[in-house]
Amino acid sequence: MSIIPDFVLSLVATYLTSLLYWFSDQIYADLLKRDPEHLLVKLHAHLDLAPLETTCAGFHHTSGPGARPTHLVPQLVRAFLVKYLFDWSLREIEWHVRFNLVVKWFVGYPLFAVGPDHSTLERFDVWVCFHQHRTAFDEVLRQIDVAFPNERQSPQIGDTLALQADAAKESLVRLLRHTCQRLLTALDAADAPRGAQVRAQLDTVALFGPPHEMGEYRLKPEERAARLQTMALAALDCAQQVRAVLDQTPPLPSQTRAPVSLWLELLDKVIQDDIALTRDEHGHLCGAVERKDKGAYRLGSATDPDATYRVHDDQSDLGYNVQVAVSDNFVREVQANTGAQPDAVAIPDVLRAQQEHHDLTPAKFI
Hints:
The chain is built from 15 helices and six strands. The longest helix is centred in the middle third of the chain and has 26 residues, at 221-246. The chain folds into three domains: 31-146, no CATH class; 153-165 and 307-358; 172-290, no CATH class. It is of the alpha+beta class. 52% of the residues lie in helices and 12% in strands. Helix 11 packs across helix 13 (221-246) and helix 13 (221-246) packs antiparallel against helix 14.
């Protein structure tokens, strides 16, 4: 092993950071010469990501206590783009940013740097979906139209595909109980004293079942029907109790009241779509059975109340209808609708979104 003079080691130690950056630049320059046609190399040359960096700048707070961010928004924007471009999972993009040199260069990390882990990438992904959910799609498509102006005049083809909800289908008893749980949780968050008042008046055993309750799958049909009746009447009482405290003075601010009202509406919908109520000669509720003719847009899970059942070729799936409009080369628009919505109903939404976001109405839509 050769001996390096002390003065050289001293110089290296003094300029180590600069040397590492220089070494990283040399490796990347040599690497990129070997494959100038790589998709990421071409995108780096043609795609201007500055507008996305600006609109996503709010991901990091700019005032108050805290250290400077380790992973900058420009890097996270590029990682986000590559993830969806290659349809990688969060753990896959984490690996590629750390060990795939072309990806690491494109995202903006020097050779010796450690990229973000999947948790950091997930936080940014979720933030973008909530705060800038159209930004990346619209900006990239805008730049495509500038580079390929004939694209805007191309005919478009639309089609619908099923998107399965990330939620398990719930039995009717489980759906009612879960919806009531979320209603009461929303009330607790809005006004804890009113939430405690409602819980004190509820028959929680009728509503949520006794401890160590036997599973539904082990019940006989008549036992299952009896449980549903008890639970449905308890759910109606729960809704009535919540409405009563919402009307108490002082009134809750509209923004605070809104989540409670939403879950009340969803509980009403489940009961209306799935339960047939019976009354005695005095008009009092006395029974509840599962409807045979259920609502067309009925809920399947309180985990994802926006998803509904989609019946297609005698198969029922809990999820959404996703309408996609494409030209010969590019996706022009994507819209997600409730699962029970017929395919043709989504076409105006697709056309309206293009008019609103891209000032475009296709000359022909197939």
